[in-house]
Write a structure and sequence with these properties.
- By secondary structure, the protein is of the alpha/beta class.
- The chain contains 11 helices and 8 strands.
- An 8-stranded mixed sheet has the order 3-2-1-4-5-6-7-8, sandwiched between helices.
- The two termini are about 30 Å apart.
């Protein structure tokens, strides 16, 4: 792999560029984004230079789409004519089914392999980029067929993911979208809802660190989440329904010992998450 094109040089794209450099990648890294985003990414050392999409991907062995989902879908529609034959295109989209479906229809000259690095921050942009962002974090790959992981380009990508410290997990697209509805999208909406409920509260100073912890995700931007919610609405709807049912159970048992089991289960999940990290 000699040349990487990163389309979208915000937090994830710039962090990927920094991670590759930190892992020893010596080739060219070209960014595609707005002038301001490219300047920030070049300043951070995440990309060498910026270029228009057609120029950036023409010689790229790996094309990494790290935009919002709507822009990833739009880029995929216009990408194929400019790709180098035999290149690998992957992405960082938080939902996978719609992206992979579009790529299957649109990309013919190169291989597409859906991806989702399970890492991020509440802040955006290359100024927040971190070469260690993906270290010990799950990076999901969603091939249509297992053989797609065995091509030379896919093997090389997996090698670099290992070098940057990511933990690769392989999932079917729909299974991925169902899981992240529970483990990523539901926590975001729960945090947002809690923040919204308390928006008019007049005594927020009468709170501890728990409220700060619970509303951390509420700092996330709707602009980022709009496409995620729209492209995974069915799975998210079911996750919200399960959460509401659990809250109703808690409300009905505030004066009983039935909640002892809920506290046990909640603590068990929290412990498992902390042991993993």
């Amino acid at each position: 792999m000699q040349t990487v094109a990163i389309v979208g040089t915000g937090l994830i794209g710039a962090s990927f560029g920094l991670a590759l450099r930190n892992a020893g990648f010596q080739g060219a890294i070209v960014g595609v984004s707005s002038d301001g985003a490219i300047a920030a990414a070049v300043g951070a050392g995440a990309v060498d230079r910026g270029a228009p999409l057609a120029e950036a991907v023409a010689d790229a062995d790996l094309v990494f789409l790290s935009q919002t989902i709507g822009r990833i879908l739009d880029t995929i529609r216009h990408l194929d004519a400019h790709l180098k034959t035999g290149a690998l295109v992957t992405d960082a989209g938080s939902t996978k089914c719609e992206i992979v479906d579009h790529a299957r229809q649109s990309i013919k000259r190169a291989q597409f392999l859906g991806g989702h690095p399970m890492a991020g921050k509440e802040t955006r942009g290359a100024a927040s980029a971190d070469a260690g962002l993906f270290r010990n974090r799950t990076w999901v790959l969603t091939p249509d067929e297992p053989s797609e992981l065995e091509t030379p380009a896919a093997r090389e990508l997996r090698g670099w993911l290992d070098r940057i410290g990511a933990r690769v997990t392989v999932l079917d697209c729909d299974e991925h979208d169902r899981i992240v509805a529970q483990t990523s999208h539901l926590p975001q909406l729960a945090s947002t809802a809690l923040g919204a409920v308390l928006a008019d509260a007049k005594h927020l100073q009468v709170s501890g660190s728990g409220l700060t912890d619970m509303t951390r995700l509420a700092l996330s931007s709707y602009d980022l989440w709009r496409d995620i919610l729209a492209t995974n609405s069915d799975h998210i709807d079911r996750a919200i329904a399960a959460y509401i049912q659990e809250l109703e159970h808690i409300r009905e048992n505030l004066r009983t010992r039935q909640l002892q089991e809920e506290f046990r289960l909640g603590a068990m999940t929290a412990t498992r998450l902390r042991e993993r990290k």
